[in-house]
Known about the structure:
2 copies of one chain form a homodimer. The first copy, chain A, is 37% helix and 23% strand. With 265 residues, chain A is α/β, with parallel strands linked by helices. Chain A has a single domain, classed as Carbamate kinase, CATH 3.40.1160.10. In chain A, the strands form 4 sheets. An 8-stranded mixed beta sheet of chain A has the order 5-8-2-1-11-13-14-12, sandwiched between helices. Chain A has a two-stranded antiparallel ribbon with strand order 3-4. A two-stranded antiparallel ribbon of chain A has the order 6-7. In chain A, a hairpin with a 5-residue loop joins strand 9 and strand 10. At the A-B interface, helix 4, strand 5 and helix 5 of A face helix 4, strand 5 and helix 5 of B.
Amino acid sequence: xxxxxxxxxxxxxGNIIDDDAKxxxxxxxxxxxxxxxxxxxxxxxxxxxxxEELKLPQQMVNGRRVTDADTLRIVTMxxxxxxNKNIVASLQAQGCTALGLTGADGDAIRxxxxxxxxxxxxxxxxxxxxxxxxxxxxxxxxxxIVMAPITHDGKGQLLNTNADTIAQxxxxxxxxxxxxxxxxxxxxxxxxLDVNDEAxxxxxxxxxxxxxxxxxxxxxxxxxxxxxxxxxxLESGVDRVLIGQAEDLPALVSGRSGTALSLQD
Amino acid sequence: xxxxxxxxxxxxxGNIIDDDAKxxxxxxxxxxxxxxxxxxxxxxxxxxxxxEELKLPQQMVNGRRVTDADTLRIVTMxxxxxxNKNIVASLQAQGCTALGLTGADGDAIRxxxxxxxxxxxxxxxxxxxxxxxxxxxxxxxxxxIVMAPITHDGKGQLLNTNADTIAQxxxxxxxxxxxxxxxxxxxxxxxxLDVNDEAxxxxxxxxxxxxxxxxxxxxxxxxxxxxxxxxxxLESGVDRVLIGQAEDLPALVSGRSGTALSLQD
Lengths: 265, 265
């Protein structure tokens, strides 16, 4: 079997999306990155701001937006329209042949509406399947994909979907065809031992170390779903997971900065 | 040389987009249409309504929206987000593997900001080039393209662009690879001799007949840019142009209804 080509799947966090200068720098670095690549973006505060402009009250539960019909309309407009297309146009200007997608496009990512528990999150999707043939077909056409965090259920319903999860599902779903490297890039330098000290980056986290860190309550609560996702990705065939600063993507991609996750010690 | 495969490029007008029942029927027919196909949609009144919700006054000149920065943001959200993604999700539900694009995606359609004359239309694009390799690559992957009327200038600027023109440019730009059939579908039965009589459809318009109709002031003013576009398309390699009712797409595609344009008598 010939060596697999590397595919970078890079999630960029909301705080970068909200900051024009940081986003421009990140996109310049993304455009310059060699090889096959996918950018997954969140929505940042733009959707919240749009809801305020439209005077539509937003309900958040456990840090997640409850997506009623009006909110779905807003996130579809802001994520798939405003943010996605401006990112694509900026990447084109840098010579990167980017193509923006939602999960509905080409049936790229299919999901189902989250089953109601104690909380009804509304039009929120949990991912069922990534269309690896479609996505790799686009990548092999020389396109870099820019994915908005919207999926569909195959029955005509769009669904608001967590961008971290989308990145992990893409990395997993494409791991048979590519050596997939999953990067969670955001405003922090990596997974920190002390959330107030950017120099306290943990360079490597293995499952054993993760258990220790969790037991010692050393992990910032907001980071736990990201790490859970990351370990699930490694267990499902993803080659590497890296977590770190979006503002210096080359350092993160090369392993010179950030936190690496590995199943082996 | 082997016979070219047929590609249908179908523009659907704003009044259909604004009517859920008519749009659903149109999309069902579009999904059922055999072979390679592209849907180009306008924006209808949704962008105007969104501007009203946001209390942003809109300026129209000669039936065209003046696109300031706020308006560009709105049309990007509404056309490329809300309308495009809902159409794509609906087509997927009908078994049509649709993929939504703007001209920025994959550098599909490049334009330049319209040169200021007496009127500054703002962020409005006049088309320079269609990326036929990109578009045909997607079509050959089995994808049906849904194009929103937004293009880019290659320098990072999105531009609001007339959907009729986009349809014509796609039909022309792809005419070397495909036998392209360009359809302008809307709420009318075709080009009418009497604008108040749906039974007065002119079945065939040649250049000579067009000159006569114009001289006799028989053509409804709003139809003239469409017809000018259509004849330009035929002169540039498009095989057929058909104008007629979006509500009965099979009849229009087959030539059983509507107006056909031809360079020959």
